[in-house]
Amino acid sequence: MSSTVMHHEFQVISTAEHVRPARHETAKVLTDWGISKRVVDTACLIISELVTNVVRHAAVLSPTATVTLAVDDAALVLSVADAHPLKPKPLPAAHSVGGRGLFMVNALVREVHGRAEDLSDTGTGGKRIVIHLPLAPVAT
Predict the structure, then answer these.
(1) Radius of gyration for the alpha carbons in the chain, expressed in angstroms and rounded
(2) What is the pTM of this model?
(3) pLDDT of 1 above 50
(4) CA dihedral (132, 111, 50, 58) positive or negative
(5) Which phi and psi (to 5°) does residue 5 adopt?
(6) For residue range 25-84, what is the model confidence (pLDDT) as tens digits?
(7) Are 81 and 126 within 8 A, CB to CB?
(8) Measuring CA to CA, which residue among 14, 49, 10, 11 is closest to residue 30?
(9) Do 9 and 42 form a contact (C-beta atoms < 8 A)?
(10) How would you write the chain as a 3-class SS string?
(11) What percentage of the chain carries pLDDT values higher than 70?
């Protein structure tokens, strides 16, 4: 059983101009925690993509989203939760008209041997996308 060592949660308004502040807060917190630059960069890209998805697809029912950053025994755990019930479906490949966000997130997660979960959030009726990234580099 893992125990959470560090935890930080913040709200972000579901508008495009709040994607960048979410990325900056993520970078600051993870850097302050001593997370490696490579993991911080990956985490910031993932948070940017997930918050952008909230802005594009969930804002009508979710004026804010909750970003959670946590470190447990072996992983950095990132999550973005919103109040929209529709679960995202990543496209099988990037398309010129969109669909690159989750495609890219899934590719990044696979590359570092992490895992992603799409969970229902019974409290809001929405969903929570949870990403687990290993803290130590994975030998390839």
Answers:
(1) 14
(2) 0.89
(3) no
(4) negative
(5) -95, -45
(6) 999 999 999 999 999 999 999 999 999 999 999 999 999 999 999 998 789 999 999 999
(7) yes
(8) 10
(9) no
(10) CCCCCEEEEEEEECCHHHHHHHHHHHHHHHHHCCCCHHHHHHHHHHHHHHHHHHHHHCCCCCCEEEEEEEECCCEEEEEEEECCCCCCCCCCCCECCECHHHHHHHHHHHHCCCEEEEEEECCCCEEEEEEEEECCCCCC
(11) 86
Residue 100 burial by CB count (10 A; 0-12/13-18/19+): exposed, middle or buried?
middle
Instruction: Please report, as a single letter, which amino acid is at residue 43.
Output: A
d(CA 25, CA 112): 22
Inform me whether the pLDDT recorded for 93 exceeds 90.
Answer: no
Which residue, chain included where needed, has tokens 């029912």? 61
Q: Which two tokens stand for residue 14?
A: 């579901």
